[in-house]
Write a structure and sequence with these properties.
Elements: H1 8-15, H2 19-36, E1 41-49, H3 75-87, E2 92-97, H4 103-119, E3 123-127, H5 133-142, E4 146-148, H6 156-162, H7 171-183, E5 187-190, E6 193-194, H8 201-214, E7 218-223, H9 242-259, E8 264-267, H10 271-274, H11 278-284, E9 289-293, H12 297-300, H13 314-323, H14 337-342
Parallel strand pairs: 1-2, 1-9, 2-3, 3-4, 4-5, 5-7, 6-7, 7-8, 8-9
Length: 345
């Protein structure tokens, strides 16, 4: 059995593993996940807008990417996707967009959340970036259950390399948003990318310890995948190989599962950018949430955070998981055990 040391040194050691040693780590994390919750939760992903005010150096929907066709789904299109999630008994949906701070955007999201709650038995996750406390409060009052705000990196040094140096890209603001979300009672999620240029194993270990200190309820964490229309693409020679990024990401999922056994960990969509079995491998390493893309097919290519290959059919992923003895939790909201334990009266 793999012995995990829940400290910075132990996490770094886990991230370094390859071959049979890495498999022993994954098996240990998988066993812990099975002991805690022997089910895989489903979450429908609706990427409803690629309009973004941010200019992050790694992201394909950054505002400076003038080659990208911008879109925002209509209310009707979003509700049609939510209806599919309900019909397919997914239990929850994530509404994800670029980062926009405006009253019109706040009202639009507020209305969508209220309407979904009125019509469907679904948990709602929002992933719409940094917002004011008041905006988060309004979205919570409208019926939002969870909020995912990826930190991307907790290292000030690396965060500065990933973003323009201006008031729109400040790490402390992002941390403040996570604190606001916790105060408002959201099930709060964060995440990081693994295998970025200039990123060290110590940086990744510090990210996992940041999640522990922040007491998050869920995590979306996966390998960094390049986009040719970004400044980071010029650093591709300094980026770890796809194989190394995949191993590091699986190891990070396992280390986080052992560090925080009772949180929800999603098999991030970026795993599929590096392996045709990416999501399945993430589950084998300790993930317990599968994201199924419900974005209209004509819009998916434009929601290009990274350049992703032709998507595998979600139904094939589910059939593979069942083949390996996994229980898919159809129709269950999939609340984080950590969140439930914290909020027991």
């Amino acid at each position: 059995m793999y012995i995990f040391e829940p400290a910075r040194r132990g996490i770094i050691s886990a991230l370094e593993l390859r071959g049979s040693a890495a498999q022993a780590l994954w098996q240990r994390a998988y066993a812990v996940r099975k002991e805690r919750a022997d089910k895989i939760f489903l979450r429908g992903l609706i990427e409803f807008s690629n309009v973004c005010a941010k200019d992050c150096y790694y992201c394909g929907i950054r505002k400076s990417n003038v080659s990208l066709h911008r879109f925002t789904l209509t209310k009707e299109e979003i509700l049609q996707a939510a209806a599919r999630a309900h019909e397919q008994r997914m239990g929850s949906v994530t509404l994800q967009s670029g980062e926009i701070c405006s009253e019109n955007f706040t009202l639009f999201v507020e209305d969508i959340v209220k309407t979904i709650k009125q019509n469907f038995d679904l948990r709602i996750v929002l992933s719409c970036g940094e917002q004011s406390y008041e905006t988060y409060r309004r979205w919570k009052t409208a019926g939002t259950d969870r909020y995912l705000l990826k930190i991307e990196s907790s290292s000030p040094r690396l965060y500065a390399k990933m973003h323009p140096q201006d008031e729109n890209h400040i790490l402390l603001n992002r941390v403040r948003c996570l604190e606001d979300l916790k105060k408002l009672g959201f099930q709060t999620g964060s995440g990081t990318m693994i295998g970025l240029p200039k990123q060290t194993l110590a940086d990744i270990a510090d990210d996992l310890l940041f999640f522990l200190d922040a007491d998050i309820d869920m995590c979306g964490m996966g390998p960094y995948a390049e986009h040719s229309q970004t400044p980071f693409y010029e650093l591709r020679e300094e980026t770890p190989s796809p194989e190394n990024r995949l191993f590091m990401s699986l190891n990070a999922v396992s280390a986080l599962r052992l560090l925080m056994p009772d949180i929800n960990i999603a098999a991030a969509t970026s795993f599929d950018a590096l392996s045709s079995r990416g999501k399945e491998l993430a589950v084998s390493a300790g993930a317990n949430v599968i994201m199924l893309n419900l974005t209209p097919r004509q819009n998916r290519a434009d929601y290009s955070l990274y350049e992703r290959p032709e998507e595998t059919l979600d139904k094939n992923i589910l059939s593979e998981l069942k083949k390996y003895g996994e229980t898919v939790a159809y129709g269950e909201g999939g609340d984080s055990q950590r969140f439930r334990a914290r909020n027991i009266k």
